[in-house]
Design goal:
By secondary structure, this protein is an alpha/beta fold. It is built from 13 helices and 14 strands. The two termini are about 40 Å apart.
């Protein structure tokens, strides 16, 4: 029974909440059963756009292709995809070359849609012209569709940023200490604006005052949790308790909206957002006095420059997302104990450290775990 590898891809994380993955997998598996192929592997690139081709270079499909090149995938194996646009939305010639190179290695490519099978014989024999035209036509449609979508999204963001410069509301989801008030009838009659949320502004000011007094991110988060201040951000999927985290405190202390500014961002070729360097002032109402903001940020910057506090002697946590508290199931975070010896690192329950529910704050020497992990098997 010939081997088959199913490839599943969709572009955005939002699609993961739907049934795109299940639908592709079910139809590909049914196709393999009809053909009598044995599915030996499922390769997934979830939330990975094919517009820039990163799934072919650094994505899981790219990694699988490297295994093909290394001879780790047996010739005759079939790569099964739902449609050709799952494979690539790059320029037609790039898609064509990628498929031809793969077929040269003895790998077949099959699509559930139309039940087409592309292999070396099909692309080089009497049917070569037909096969190449089919690939090029499908790739052209997919590429043009993605190109148009990309242009529309970019144009929409440019329009939003232009409206922001005119004092219009950029988004219905503003920073956590603001809310949108007013009414929007249509694009020409938008009477919305931003309003400060008093109770959250009070928390912000307290955070900045603590930072100005020299308290670090971790210490501020701990104080907020001890005082029972409700957190604003979403709880991490890797923790069992909500609460303030040091990283979110750091974001608040650096956020440009505190000063009323909006810093536009664009999309890089890798699909990541990157600041353009432009600053649009007076977009949001100022939440914290400018003098207090300056003192807090200067104090925080000084702490980072001297590497005081939690990161005095940085060490990598080799058990990130692996070690968990046996009592609450939360992550074990890496801490130092300056009163003992700041050179050594310890694992401690993240929930207990942040005072968000767990009552077992014991420390475990990180070096012991590393030595056990590094020991050769008996």
């Amino acid at each position: 029974m010939p081997d088959a590898v199913i490839y599943i891809r969709f572009s955005t994380k939002r699609q993961e909440k739907g049934f795109s993955k299940e639908r592709q997998l079910e139809e590909c598996e049914a196709f393999c059963r009809r053909k009598g192929w044995n599915v030996v592997e499922v390769v997934e690139d979830l939330g990975q756009s094919a517009w820039k081709g990163h799934h072919l270079s650094v994505g899981n499909l790219g990694k699988w292709r490297k295994r093909v090149d290394a001879g780790d995938v047996a010739p005759g194996t079939t790569l099964v995809i739902h449609k050709l646009d799952r494979l690539s939305r790059l320029e037609p010639r790039v898609t064509q070359r990628w498929m031809e190179d793969l077929c040269d290695k003895g790998i077949r490519i099959a699509t559930v849609d139309g039940e087409r099978i592309f292999d070396d014989a099909y692309l080089k024999g009497p049917t070569a012209l037909m096969g190449i035209m089919e690939i090029v036509m499908n790739a052209t449609v997919s590429h043009k569709e993605s190109e148009k979508k990309s242009e529309l999204v970019a144009d929409a963001w440019r329009r939003k940023q232009q409206l922001t410069r005119q004092g219009k509301v950029l988004s219905a989801k503003p920073p956590a200490w603001l809310r949108v008030v007013g009414e929007r009838i249509d694009k020409d009659q938008d009477y919305r604006g931003y309003e400060l949320i008093p109770e959250r502004v009070a928390v912000l000011k307290q955070i900045y005052e603590w930072a100005a007094d020299g308290i670090g991110y971790w210490g501020i988060a701990k104080r907020l949790n001890e005082q029972g201040v409700p957190s604003w951000g979403k709880a991490r999927s890797t923790t069992t308790n909500k609460g303030w985290g040091w990283s979110y405190v750091g974001i608040l202390l650096k956020h440009p909206a505190i000063d009323g500014e909006y810093h536009p961002a664009g999309m890089t070729e890798s699909g990541k957002r990157k600041k353009t360097g432009e600053r649009i002032e007076n977009v949001f109402p100022r939440a914290v006095d400018a003098d207090l903001v300056a003192r807090a940020r200067a104090s925080a910057s000084k702490r980072w420059q001297t590497r005081s506090g939690r990161y005095a002697a940085y060490a990598r946590n080799l058990f990130s997302t692996l070690a968990r508290c046996r009592h609450c199931g939360g992550l074990m975070t890496m801490r130092s104990r300056a009163e003992v010896d700041a050179r050594y690192r310890y694992l401690q329950c993240d929930s207990a450290a942040r005072h968000t529910g767990c009552d077992r704050p014991e420390f475990f020497n990180h070096r012991i775990f590393v030595s056990v992990r590094s020991s050769p098997p008996c």
